[in-house]
Specification:
alpha+beta, Ribosomal Protein S5, domain 2, 11 helices
């Protein structure tokens, strides 16, 4: 993305130069899906594409934000902020973020913001977390609010949970805030303890395939899946003194007599327990350079998400199954919440051109969509850009 162009676009929209520019990445989750809200271990990484912001203080009580995605200017009167409620529109993320910042130490004031993105929207790469974390970071930086990155991530999650109405976990926001180039993040979503793990892929790289099947989590079964996990946990707590599904082993879930008559709930709990174990094993595999084993864990993750958690879809399964037959692919899986979105694969760099050609051709032949491919290493988290 050309930073000077973003600054010129800001000047054209607001009639003056911005004070600063910012970037908030998207994220790809390598493994550990639908367990961030079950207290599990996850392994996301920030990616090279994301959301860009040019911003300046405006000396008023209004926050004015222009988005190229919606081709719309939204103005928020800060004096009326506390009375604002969700509308179901994209500006809920603006209002929710400002409400979170307003609850932190410091004083909000008017800013003008120009927002654009080079990341596909509704694709499972966390465009909403990228926007909320990036806007919060830009506003707090300009206003001199002392907000550390983890607090910012938690605030962005609260935007989703408390204002937008998506009961997501912390993984997306944490990865957007805390990412580091050439590292993935190993995050305990219960304690927020984390480790930056070097992405030593050698002759392999990350390839993301966008199914082009859009997702909108607040209108999907995402919240239902979380509710089912809560129900399964309540039953399991009759036998085990735990507070999160991911504290349990697969054997403990399978042995719980209370789940025998609840097949759906049992499968949801089995996914949480088995996925958490796969992440622990994946961390060891990556540290020991056992990339083939890591690929096997990715494949098993997709199967569990498809069969036990039922969040895949026909198009994601086609991408996954096609990848299995392409030379040079170590592993593949859906990434993100599912119901559409993307797959992530570990592919030999020398095999990537054939992978792209083979995958896109097979996908176009089997579906009405054309898959879009993104090659991305692990990138930095949210940051202020040099002019």
């Amino acid at each position: 993305m050309n930073i000077s162009k973003i600054q010129k676009d800001f000047a054209r929209e607001f009639g003056r130069s911005p004070d600063a520019s910012y970037f908030a990445p998207g994220r790809v989750n390598l493994i550990g899906e639908h367990i961030d809200y079950n207290g599990g271990l996850v392994m996301p990484a920030a990616i090279s594409t994301g959301t860009y912001f040019a911003a300046a203080l405006n000396g008023t009580d209004y926050v004015n934000i222009y988005s190229t995605l919606f081709n719309e200017l939204v103005s928020i009167d800060l004096s009326k902020l506390s009375d604002m409620t969700p509308t179901g529109q994209w500006d809920d993320y603006i209002v929710g973020t400002l409400l979170q910042l307003n609850a932190l130490p410091g004083q909000l004031a008017g800013v003008d913001v120009f927002v654009t993105s080079d990341m596909p929207q509704n694709s499972g790469l966390s465009s909403s977390a990228s926007f909320a974390v990036g806007l919060g970071f830009a506003a707090s930086d300009l206003l001199g609010l002392e907000v550390d990155l983890i607090t910012l991530a938690l605030a962005a999650r609260a935007v989703e949970n408390d204002f937008v109405g998506v009961n997501c976990g912390i993984m997306d926001q944490f990865a957007v805030a805390m990412g580091k180039e050439d590292y993935c993040i190993v995050l305990d979503c219960d304690s927020l303890d984390y480790e930056l793990l070097p992405m030593k892929l050698g002759e392999y790289e990350i390839v993301i395939a966008n199914s082009m099947v859009p997702r909108k989590l607040s209108e999907s079964n995402y919240n239902l899946r979380r509710s089912e996990c809560d129900q399964a946990l309540e039953i399991l707590q009759q036998d085990y003194p735990v507070s999160q599904l991911c504290e349990l082993t697969v054997e403990q879930v399978e042995s719980c007599s209370g789940l025998l008559k609840h097949d759906v709930l049992k499968r949801r709990a089995l996914h949480a327990a088995s996925e958490n174990q796969r992440v622990h094993e994946s961390v060891t595999a990556l540290k020991q350079g056992r990339l083939a084993d890591f690929g096997d864990f990715m494949n098993a993750s997709h199967a569990s998400l498809r069969d036990d958690f039922e969040v895949s879809c026909k198009e994601l399964d086609i991408l996954f199954e096609t990848a299995q037959g392409i030379p040079g692919v170590l592993g593949s899986r859906m990434t993100g919440a599912g119901f559409g979105g993307c797959t992530v694969s570990i592919v030999a760099t020398s095999a990537v051109p054939n992978f792209i050609d083979s995958l896109t051709a097979a996908y176009s032949a089997a579906t009405p969509y054309e898959a879009k491919i993104l090659r991305s290493g692990a990138g930095d988290g949210v940051k202020r850009l040099n002019s």
